[in-house]
Write a structure and sequence with these properties.
Rossmann fold; 13 strands; 7-stranded parallel sheet; binds NADP nicotinamide-adenine-dinucleotide phosphate; two-stranded parallel ribbon; alpha/beta
């Protein structure tokens, strides 16, 4: 299959690029700015997207997004442009060409007032601009009439880019004491695991299983637990103190509980999902390799 990936310079895009090196499929990697990852493609440019997809692309994997949750509060139009208009442009191009769109979305479409894992058909009610634009993006994909698989994921991290893992790695290396919120519960997801899950769908001829799916690593923890595990795995000496979100205000409100129920994904695609602690160890090993 011919597979076009958008947002290839991001953490998920790069993880897919790494796995693609051993794939039988032909990948076309695109990004809006970076020169080191394939062709330039701004997903909000309908003419350019239509040219890039043409008739020969079988699957589009949309990893492009405006992901700065706090900045989105002050720049809603910038977040809307990529997360809604960009998703709509790709979906319309997929509808015209017959390509399947694998579109990545987020746990932040939920308000976090639940206390059991969210299923795909649970009511959505985003708390922040980022979540609202991602939800509108999902709706645009569905409304386009294209063939789609929407994968909602959570707390994505890896060795590159901007993410919680790297932020905590840096802070615990520099500071003797930090505070981390203990009242946001979710599931960290290693970008390499989500990339693997997408490859699993492509490699096993499961692209006909259209719909919305939840995918995160197994297990759950608070941001505080995650930070402690990161610090310990890296061997850093730092005291991490738990605090509440109200005592650590940030620009965007975040859900207190955003654990995703992965039963539908597991049952449909038959993939064993790794536990977040095991994947964290892989990520730490990958980082040590990069820093050698
Ligand atoms: N990060 C998380 O914690 C998290 C959690 C749940 C769901 N997700 C979702 O998972 C997906 C992948 O996230 P990620 O963490 O890999 O994101 P990321 O590292 O922030 O990368 C986003 C990518 O999108 C690109 N991009 C932005 N605007 C674009 C445009 N107009 N045209 C083309 N590309 C554009 C960026 O390029 P530049 O770098 O050149 O701007 C970058 O390559 C996204 O859909 C995100 O919403 C992420």
């Amino acid at each position: 299959m011919n597979i076009l990936v958008t947002g290839s310079s991001g953490q998920l895009g790069r993880a897919i690029e790494e796995l693609s090196r051993n794939s039988r499929h032909r990948f076309i990697f695109t990004s809006q700015g970076a020169d080191d990852v394939g062709l330039r493609l701004d997903v909000t440019d309908a003419a350019a997207v239509s040219r890039a997809i043409g008739d020969g692309v079988d699957v589009i994997i949309n990893c492009a997004a405006y992901t700065d949750v706090n900045a989105a509060e002050d720049n809603p139009s910038a977040a809307y442009a990529v997360n809604v208009s960009g998703a709509a442009v790709l979906a319309d191009a997929a509808a015209s060409s017959g390509a399947l769109l694998i579109h990545v979305s987020t746990d932040y479409v939920f308000d976090g007032y639940a206390n059991t894992p969210y299923r795909e058909d649970d009511p959505t009610a985003p708390l922040n601009v980022y979540g609202m634009t991602k939800l509108e993006g999902e709706k645009a994909v569905i409304a386009s009439g294209c063939r789609y698989i929407i994968l909602r994921t959570s707390w994505l991290y890896g060795c590159r880019g901007r993410n919680f893992f790297l932020a905590i790695a840096e802070k615990t290396a520099e500071c003797p004491r930090i505070k981390v919120v203990c009242d946001q519960i979710g599931s960290p997801t290693y970008a390499g695991d989500l990339a693997y899950a997408i490859m699993h769908i492509l490699d096993n001829g499961m692209t006909g299983a259209e719909g919305i799916y939840h995918y995160s690593d197994e297990g759950l923890c608070s941001r505080y637990d995650f930070a402690k595990e990161i610090c310990d795995s890296l061997g850093h000496i730092c005291t991490i103190e738990p605090c509440r979100s109200v005592d650590y205000p940030s620009r965007a409100e975040r859900p207190h509980y955003s654990v995703l129920d992965k039963s539908k994904f597991r049952e449909t695609f038959g993939l064993e999902i790794p536990n977040w602690k095991d994947s964290l160890r892989l990520c730490v090993a990958e980082m040590e390799n990069i820093n050698k």
